[in-house]
Amino acid sequence: MTQNSPSLLERSSRLWRLDDLSTDRSNEGPIALLRSMSMLALNHKTTLILCTAVGIGVAAFYAHSLPRIYTATASILLEPHRSTLASSQDAQNLDPNRADSELQIIRSERLLSAVFDSLDLANSPELGPQPPRMRDIIVNKVEGVLDGLWLKITGPGGGKAPRPSDTTTSRNADGREAAFQNFAQHLDVRRVGQSYVIEISYSSSDPALAARIANAAVSGYVLQAVTSKEEMAQAGTEVLQWRLDALAAQVDAATIAMKQGALPAIPTPDGDARIIGAAQAPLGPSGPRTTLIIALGGILGLLCSFSFIALNLALDRKVRNGKDLARDTGIPCLGTLPDAVSRGGVFRGSHRRHVSVVINQPGNAYAAAIRDLRTSIEIACSAIRNERGIIVAVTAWDGASGVSALCLSLAQFINRSGRHITLFNAETHPSDLRDHDPERLATTSLADALVADIRPEQVIFANGRGDGHGIAVLPIHSNNALTNLYVDFRDRRVGRIVETARARGDVLLGLPPIDGSSDALALAAHADAVLIVAHAGKTTTDEVSDALQQLRRSGANVIGTVIDLAKT
Asked: How many helices (H) and strands (E) does the chain have?
């Protein structure tokens, strides 16, 4: 390298470092979060709409598959206690806490059992044993396996099997207990506000049964109050016979009404409660609340889709767009290359001519992206553009990122702008170059030139096919595998060859993949600026970060990344 050639540190200091940007914190806060969520929803609107529709559909199917529930309600108004003595007709004042006490009386097992037995609800199919749930089936199977193991351990006499009569009796008792528990769960008693009105409601799939049980509960409550007063009157000595007859009539009416699931046929003034609303068979179901279930299903579908998208973004580290890549790596994304058909193997056969056709089309998106990328590189390297040509290296983590197509396209754009360009490309092989001198095949690659110790001015460059004589192409690797094995690209002679090419114009280094060997790291140190190409959907952010760290440790100046959207 000549004395006038600037050192690597000096050349790097002349570049405009695109990654030395002040952090803008104006986008932080709740507004930024809402904006990010809106952008996330917009980018994944198809998934969100699909998951929401699935949630609504599943919820609608579930809501319509549930049995219809009808609720019947009967109302009573608590009244002051009446004395059972004939000589005393004054009513006692209502205690403010009496309503709460009466609620507990109605909920008591004594009253509910009387209603349950009077209506013979133990044999009701609705309250009887239901089909076993999946959880019960699993528990029973586990218990069966454990019982079998216990019998194997203890032997045939280890356990005592219940007698058939005991088993049948226990089964009947369990069936009645289960029916009573279902009955009690469907019965609801509540106080209306702070008033003395109590509502007794029962929910059932049969509207007539719901009305019968609600009325029977009211009649049972009245019967309990009247029976208590009758017993007190019979125990007294000053009670007239007509009073006993009146109480007995009220008891009989309440008993018959409770058995029939209706209200007493005669007034029951001694029941300490006046019936103000009889339970009627409801005309429409009170449950399930189909609209609410469907809305909840839609919300759950939306939340599940958001959770799925967030989890996918957290676990999926593949490169998707330049903004996210710049945020994760800390270096700017200088361009995004759209897909151009058949860009792979641009130096082989007709593919090279295809790329030339693509960049010659003014309306082609790929050509526009290459032009913008060239402009970004020119801006980054503007400090040294007036002195000499620039050396730009392009590399990637793996070999599926279109480095060769990118380098050829950039070379053609730079050549069309009136500057000579020299392209060192790792994906180009000497057998692919047809525009060379057959008598000078000794140095057909950079590796061959190093092994043969050829002086820089004697290195043979082939002309780029179809682009005149403004593009000089030299493969980096040799056809000889041993030459590629022993060559050292950190050798100073590589720098002299590259500087000789710089004297003619700009230089592009299409480097091999970083994960394959260290050749890319060795050659990147000779460049003024280095670009990392990431293949969208395949290259991960971690791979780009690893490539960035390795290049910087080798002394390379990485100025940005490029995303290639090509489909392979």
From this structure: 20, 12
Q: What is residue 425's predicted lDDT score, i.e. its pLDDT?
A: 86
d(CA 315, CA 324): 14
Q: Which residues of the chain have pLDDT under 50?
A: 1-24, 84-91, 159-166, 342-354, 430-442, 465-468
Helices 207-235 + 98-107 axis angle, to 10:
110
Is 397 in contact with 531 (CB distance < 8 Å)?
A: no
First to last CA, the chain: 41
- Beta strand residue intervals within 58-146, DSSP E: 70-78
Residue pLDDT, tens place only, 398-441: 876 678 888 888 888 888 888 889 999 887 554 444 444 444 43
Q: So what's the pLDDT on residue 68? A: 87
Quick one: tokens of 263? 């209200």
Whether 122 contacts 179, CB under 8 Å: yes
DSSP states of 315-331: H--B---HHHHHHHHSS
Place of tokens 């009887």: 128
218-246 residue pLDDT tens: 999 888 888 888 777 777 655 577 777 88
**421-425 vs 506-510, strand pairing mode:** parallel
Give pairs for 373-377: CB < 8 Å, separation 24+: 373/334, 373/335, 373/337, 373/406, 373/410, 373/562, 374/410, 374/413, 374/414, 374/417, 376/334, 376/335, 376/560, 377/334, 377/410, 377/529, 377/531, 377/559
